[in-house]
From TrEMBL:
GO terms for biological process: pentose catabolic process; pentose-phosphate shunt. The active site is at D33 (proton acceptor), D172 (proton donor). Substrate binds at S7, H64, G139, F140, T141, G142, D172, G173, G174. GO terms for cellular component: cytoplasm. The lineage of its organism: Bacteria, Thermotogati, Thermotogota, Thermotogae, Petrotogales. It catalyses: D-ribulose 5-phosphate = D-xylulose 5-phosphate. This is Ribulose-phosphate 3-epimerase. Its cofactor is a divalent metal cation; Co(2+); Zn(2+); Fe(2+).
Amino acid sequence: MVKIYPSLLAADFNNLENEISEIEDIVDGLHMDIMDGSFVPNISFGFPILNSVRKISNLNFDTHLMIKNADSYIDEFSKTSRQLTVHYEAVTHLHRTVSRIKELGCEAGVSLNPHTPVFLLEEILPYLDRVLIMSVNPGFTGQKFIESSYKKIKKLHEMKLKLNPTLDIMVDGGVGENNIAKLYNCGVTSFVVGAGVFHQEDKRAAVLNLRKRAENND
């Protein structure tokens, strides 16, 4: 089953409620990119925005912590978000962090930057709900998809079959109508899409088209 998570970072913040309501009934959640300007070279938004969006939407929040010292903030993020993802590269005691996320009643995910190999997740994989593969260098929306990501995703899918068959494989960066079917065939089940949804004139049609192309191998 294909899951689509539009990235709020690409939305028009001057018209946020309408942007979300237009697609609310046809997406699987909103992807929240939390950036600290240290782990990644950009600053996005934090608790005030999530709290405000929670008041206008019942969608699942898939919150991606692209920050250092994530352990200090996961308790607070768990109040608005059902899915929390931390970066392998930014967490010192990953098992402890993943365990805490689950204790808070959230699904736990780990993200890998483009340079980080998937074999490093072998020990933690059985404890995860999802792995988020960054197919661009994190920090900015609208970047070009890194082609080596296909091979990386296939390796992760092989690990999934052996270690955690229910694992959700998510990809973020450069996802669009031209590559979503290939990514789905490689084993991706959840797709983060920013400009491919929120920058389109007809956002509903964009979501439906992406889902159709993946499921129909188009």
